[in-house]
Amino acid sequence: MEITTRSWHATLECGNELNGAEYGSFASVKHRPDIIDVYVITGAGKVHAARRPGMKPMAFDFYVHVAVDIEPGSPAAKHYKLITRYPGHALIRHVWPDGRNYTERIPQ
Amino acid sequence: MADVFTRKGFDGSGWNITVGALDYIAPMGANFGNGISVSGFQDSTHATDGSMSSDLCTPNHMRNTKYVSPTQVSLMGGVPVTLNESNVGDTDCTLRWSYADDAPANTALSNVRLFAYDGSNPATPPSGIKALAFERRATGILKDRVSDTPGDGGAWDSSKGIGGSANALICSERTSAATHYFYFGLSMSPTSKGQKTGKLRLEFDAQ
Known about the structure:
The complex is a heterodimer of chains A (108) and B (207). With 108 residues, chain A is mainly beta. Chain A is 4% helix and 53% strand. Chain A has one helix and eight strands. Chain A has one helix at residues 20-23; strands at 8-12, 17-19, 35-42, 45-48, 59-71, 77-86, 89-95, 101-107. In chain B, strands 2-1-8-14-10-11 form a six-stranded antiparallel β-sheet, with no helix packed on it. Chain B is mostly beta strands and 207 residues long. Chain B contains no helices and 15 strands. In chain B, β5 (65-69) and β6 (72-75) form a beta hairpin. Chain B is 0% helix and 42% strand. The chains are: A mainly beta (108), B mainly beta (207). At the A-B interface, β5 of A face β1, β8, β9 and β15 of B.
């Protein structure tokens, strides 16, 4: 399953969804206040952005993390980063195409 | 995202030295095959293959940026100069690394980091090597590490360096574009005798 910067899906308050195939980079929609969820589709099904129970996120973000060795070069290792922003901190869910994932919390 | 990466060295007239997928960048003494004294820095930089016996950039070699001090560099064996964007141009740098999404799709890059590691564990510095680096931009030279206080410039400091992911060079972020070019100066020093190997890794977030 190929990882691309267009692999994201976003759910809106009204129930509609946006996706990268239609809207391109997540940068084109990241400032929308009506996004309530972001997810990717993996070999194990949908994996959603991390959430804190009882707290409404300020915003979401989506990146593809790339790691490539310069010498000798090798295929880039990539995974998704689904980011949920809260006041003072963010949750980053790192997601691999097979569905493996873990969440880290970082101050902001 | 089928990515397109290129690694090129400048041969004096153009970015014509290709560091292929299985090639190495080899810091050496005065000439290809010459050793570097322990605690000294390289006098020449070459592209070589997996056998480490062929100079792939002859007769015009890769640009050499030899560490002199935290604020100085020697370019191609010349008199040391202050490490700044006026004295060091893109074409003075060891390596031009480029990235493009061949979808094609423009991408913006953030959290860009360069570090050296042992080839197995990104957190582990390469054994027996002190690796230093800077990124050259038209607006300045970048040499702070993620572990530095801003302004310390530890990536180009022989007492520090970019060994291990925790000491990665903080590279420039890039706004949306089809292709991104990074210009790196590299300098290496053996901390003990014998042949050394390691890997340079570039990491970034693409959007």
